[in-house]
Amino acid sequence: MPIEMAVQVTMYLNESDKWHGRALHVAILTYLREENVFAATVFHAVAGFFGRLRVKSAGLVDAGGKLPIMLIFVDQDEHVNRVLPKLREMAPTHLIVRENVVIEQGSLD
């Protein structure tokens, strides 16, 4: 089986982020689907922190919509290059990590 390379992008968001009145993670998923990105998933964290801010936890009454969300998607390099400018616009202050990955099983076809 030939090795297939791909790009995986992880975006660190929080549940209170908005884009034009919608939840940012939903807006990004919708955009990625419209752009025919191969696969994307959102993970809602039970706890986490970003930068040097305090830990937010689902167990804290005062979490206030600031729980972490990770949005991860994978596709071929050219597709990722095409969608990243819009994602930077949609989440200008958030961490976006890009890494090359090896597809161990399955295919991006």
What string, H for helix and E for strand, traces the elements in order?
A: EEEHEEEEHE
Largest sheet: 4 strands, antiparallel
Which CATH top level class fits? Alpha Beta
Quickly give the CATH architecture. 2-Layer Sandwich
Shape: globular
User: How does the helix and strand content classify structurally?
Assistant: alpha+beta
The tally of structural domains comes to 1
Total beta strands = 8
Tell me the helix content: 10-25%
The overall pLDDT, averaged over residues, is 88
Low-confidence stretches: none
The quaternary organization reads as single chain
Strand order of the largest sheet: 4-7-1-8
Through-space gap between termini: 15 Å
Percent strand equals: 35-45%
Structural description of this entry:
The protein has 109 residues and is an alpha+beta fold. The protein has one domain (4-103): 2-Layer Sandwich (Alpha-Beta Plaits), CATH 3.30.70.120. The chain has helices at 24-34, 77-90; strands at residues 4-14, 18-19, 22-23, 39-44, 47-48, 56-57, 68-75, 96-103. The strands form three sheets. The chain has a four-stranded antiparallel β-sheet, covered by helices on one side. A two-stranded antiparallel sheet has the order 2-3. The two termini are 15 Å apart.
Brief characterization of the structure:
The protein has 109 residues and is α+β, with helices and mostly antiparallel strands. It has two helices and eight strands. 23% of the residues lie in helices and 38% in strands.
